[in-house]
Amino acid sequence: MNESAPLAVELRGITKRFPGVVANKDIELRVARGEVHAIVGENGAGKSTLMKTLYGMHRPDEGEILIDGRAVTFRSPADAIAAGIGMVHQHFMLADNFTVLENVVLGSEPTRGVRLDRAEGRRRIRDISDRYSLGLDPDTLVEDLGVGDRQRVEIAKVLYRGATTLILDEPTAVLVPQEVDELFGNLAELKREGLTVIFISHKLDEVRKVADSITVIRRGTTVGTADPATTSAKQLAELMVGAELPTPQTRTSTVRDVPVLQLRGVTVSAPGGRALVDDVSLTVREGEVVGIAGVEGNGQAELVDAVMGLRPLAAGSIVLGADDIATWSTRRRREQGLGFIPEDRHRQGMLLDAPLWENRILGHQTRPPAVKGAFIDRKGARADTARIMREYDVRAPGPDTAAVALSGGNQQKLIVGREMSASPRLLIAAHPTRGVDVGAQSVIWELLKDARAEGMGIVLVSADLDELIGLSDTLHVMLRGALVATLDPASLTPEELGSHMTGAGSTAGAA
Ligand SMILES: Nc1ncnc2c1ncn2[C@@H]1O[C@H](COP(=O)(O)OP(=O)(O)OP(=O)(O)O)[C@@H](O)[C@H]1O
């Protein structure tokens, strides 16, 4: 770090309180111009809060923000943007049926009422794309782009607004290894052009590969900075949580030859008739984890919805135990032993404004601890929520805390605890460890392994390839709605799996 040049970003003594929680306490962050700086820390450590403060979404209660050596006060993201700070959110905010040009330009001029100057916009996007090797064509429709390109559109949007410091929130969570490499290439390019990148990540190997320096946050405060060249992933994990780095590996097979779930010819159609899920057949047996790999948007989410009864089938059957459940309601499916860890906990798994105890009984309203006789059992629900919070290490003040006040990882632990508590015969686990830290990840992996050993069948949909390879007994690859390969996880590398997912895989290695 060049000590004489002013820092691109410096946070001094930042404290941010929410009711009952000190999310950030005395945080110190020093980011040099032109570096890639990673922020790591366990769930609820305060990373998002800190980044939102830097992006003008929160006002700090105490502390100072300095940009290029000058103290600033941000009243809103508009102020942060004017100071050259841009944020690339984890969930893309693009309109599918618009072009790259329209998304980039309109996204940056929503309220000014200026007419879109297409020629000028096109020229500037081409410049940005060339300068930072983003490979974007302004006239492509966003719906025709893959996940990696969409992320580059988000980056272009931020650059178009003149950002010189980019904040990326868990940018690799949705990418396959090849795309991760491309993103890292893009980040290197930004750096070469003198831009500064701050990114949050739970993937410590990646952090070590791409970051110039690392700030570790623990329980709301900075515990130190680490040099990626000399700090191992294990040491980083220990700094973060004081725990050993977990592995998802399961060794001995626990598969019994008793089918729990059988899908035959399952087909789900889009309104226009196009197959989103195309003739999928698979079997999950007792004690078996069946993994489904695929780049996001290849029908995995729709398949999961179909099994849970959240989308109608165009054709096919779904047999749970001995019952064809294809026409059953979601509630009946759950009562008969289907458990569900949904992909999007904000849409499906939780009521954010409701207290944790209500979230504890969500989807399980018809049995204890939700009810006693004919009545809602608030006391029982609260007590059981407290149990889950203890056993699953959900960090929050108590069962009456609103779900919205929990960090993402702690929300996820509550959902996993709730679903496991119902002892389902078959669990659909969609991205069960997305956004959770290494400590919580290992807890969730252990829970899945224990449940498998006790005979639970599990369908695991995940974008984390190590998780898929490590936990699955059988692994299917889904591409454009169809299962295109069945692979043996015992002899598969993440790179091989990645090529199958993008359709580049050879049939060699298929089981
Ligand atoms: N709007 C809010 N209201 C109340 N509490 C909040 C709010 N936002 C965050 N918190 C609390 O602040 C703390 C830090 O949360 P934050 O989301 O910053 O953590 P994080 O490090 O980003 O976690 P994760 O890795 O799980 O996303 C947590 O205890 C969380 O419950």
Automatic annotation (TrEMBL):
Record InterPro entries: AAA+_ATPase, ABC_carbohydrate_import_ATPase, ABC_transporter-like_ATP-bd, ABC_transporter-like_CS, P-loop_NTPase
Compartments, record wording: Cell membrane
Chief subcellular location: membrane
SUPFAM superfamilies: P-loop containing nucleoside triphosphate hydrolases
One cellular component (GO) term of this entry: plasma membrane
Keywords: ATP-binding, Cell membrane, Membrane, Nucleotide-binding, Repeat, Translocase, Transport
Membrane topology note: Peripheral membrane protein
Domain ABC transporter span(s) in chain numbering: 9-244, 261-505
An example Gene Ontology molecular-function term: ATP hydrolysis activity
Protein name: ABC transporter ATP-binding protein
Natural source organism: Modestobacter muralis
Classification of source organism: Bacteria, Bacillati, Actinomycetota, Actinomycetes, Geodermatophilales
